[in-house]
Design brief:
Elements lengths: L3 E4 L2 E4 L9 E6 L10 H8 L4 E7 L8 H6 L7 E2 L2 H5 L8 E4 L10 H12 L3 E4 L9 H10 L3 E3 L22 E7 L6 H14 L4 E4 L3 H6 L12 H19 L3 E5 L11 H9 L3 E6 L5 E2 L2 E5 L3 H11 L3 E7 L6 H15 L3 E2 L7 H10 L12
Length: 380
Amino acid sequence: MAFQKQVNDLTISIAPHHSAVKSAAVVYCEGNFAGLDGKTAHGLVRFCEAFEIRAIIDSQSAGIDAGLLLDGISNGIPIVADLDEALALPGPRASTFIYGMAPADGLYGKDDRRALLLAMAAGLNLVSGMREFLNDDSEFALAAKRHQVSIRDVRRPAALKDLRLFNGSIAKARCIRIAVLGTDGAIGKRTTATLLVQALNASGIRAVLVSTGQTGLIQGGRYGIPLDAIPSQFCSGEVEAAVVEAYCTEKPAVIVIEGQGALSHPAYLSSSFILRGSQPQAVVLQHAPARRQLSDFPFMPMPKPASEIRLIESFAPTRVIGLTLNHEGMNDAEVSAAIALYAAELAIPVTDAVSRPASALVAMVLRAFPELCISTDGQL
């Protein structure tokens, strides 16, 4: 992908479609790539370690470059009208069909089911992060057997007997832990968390990401869980276990935990489990200044960053060290004005992780944790 971020003299490139070792995939996002429910497809277009994304399927946006529509920068991933057009593209034929939408209810519509069955008939494996598990559906199980393809239900949690309660083992993770939380769902927390980890690593500070949603797992995240699919009594423990596993395996200086929903959100309360389970010393808060109502709940006004910060810092023994902006509905001048306004109001660093230099993310962390030593091994 052509999108790049600068960190001092280093360049971070988010390039999900140039690796020869990745299997090729097409992403189904019919009617939603230009909207908030297309956030899984958005994440895969911006960054994907597990697959080479060959195309996005969305007849309403067909003919446009996916990167150009999403971020204003072409990336060579076309948006096509249907599966036949995607499979006719030059280059490696896709072997995987990824469901790239994330509706609030997590359920398939009739058109979705038809598209998934057509993909299986074309010999493609399925990957989906929806709440309905296709492996449990007799029609899909029979189709998988008939066409000799696989189905991966990303959101399926571990068996109940294997789920873990909180046990205090988070004390073993002797590193800085930063949670990227937000003022709403579908607001860019995963993208900011990914760019933050890349920026820290590029600057010499060893960092690891722990994913908490289906998109991060589809992208190829090595550590993480489908948090909102786990019974509530195990959520804190599963977050704790994922962070401890990342620390014990990688021994990083920083672990960044992807947020879900918002602590103030009336429906999406996963942030509470992230705060309790990972016990972060710091939080980076993501906010969309131009958004007036919660994304899936238009009858609810957006919270202000100041009120969300107060709530977070009263709920957990942590501190918000910076604000990152989602620039949806804003031009560059408006982003700059919002950065200056919030920095003055909140007295913390403010940046836009996508449109501003990645060095600002590193500076945000170093301002909060000056003890971080940038060494060759990335250790404290």
